[in-house]
Amino acid sequence: MFGLCFECNRINTYLNWYKECYSKKFHQNFDNWTSGNKQIDKFIQESQLNARGWFELLEWIPYNRLRNIKFLARGGFSTVYKAIWLDDRISRWNYEKQDWERNVRKLDQQDYKDANNSQIKIPLKINEKKWTSNST
To answer: Quick check: pTM over 0.85?
Structure first.
């Protein structure tokens, strides 16, 4: 058992996550972001409406929230890059703050050293930290 939802007191579908209540929170935010592609937006939105926990959740990540973007490989139908996402993934809803809490991996010295690599696009700045747009 994953406990009870703080909002509706029903049994959570995952730890600190109740699908129905969280679906409503995501739905209320649909007009605040877009990938620019209606099919991609619909795919992401459906994942948000149906997620039983953070592990099933997709989010649109604006390009300006990525740092140390580095090319890794090119295949038959795609190109793969590696990057640091400043915000990191949603973990649960904070009812007190009325906002999403996110898991945050601390940056290490290697992340800042990698920023000096000439192959890196949008390098991490020395004063930049994870979750800078939402931190208190």
So the answer is: no
Q: Are 57 and 90 in contact (CB under 8 A)?
A: yes
CB neighbours of residue 91 within 10 Å: 17
Per DSSP, the three-state class of 57 is coil
Confidence class for position 31, pLDDT limits 50, 70, 90: very high
Query: Quick one: pLDDT band at residue 30, thresholds 50, 70, 90?
Result: very high
Enter the tokens of residue 13: 């579908």
User: What mean pLDDT do residues 3-11 have?
Assistant: 93
Three-class DSSP category at 117? coil
- Angle 10-12-15 from CA coordinates, rounded to 5°: 150
Within 13 Å and on the Cβ side, how many CA atoms surround 1? 5
| Helices of type H across the chain | 19-28, 38-50, 109-114
**CA-based Rg of the chain, rounded to a whole angstrom?**
17
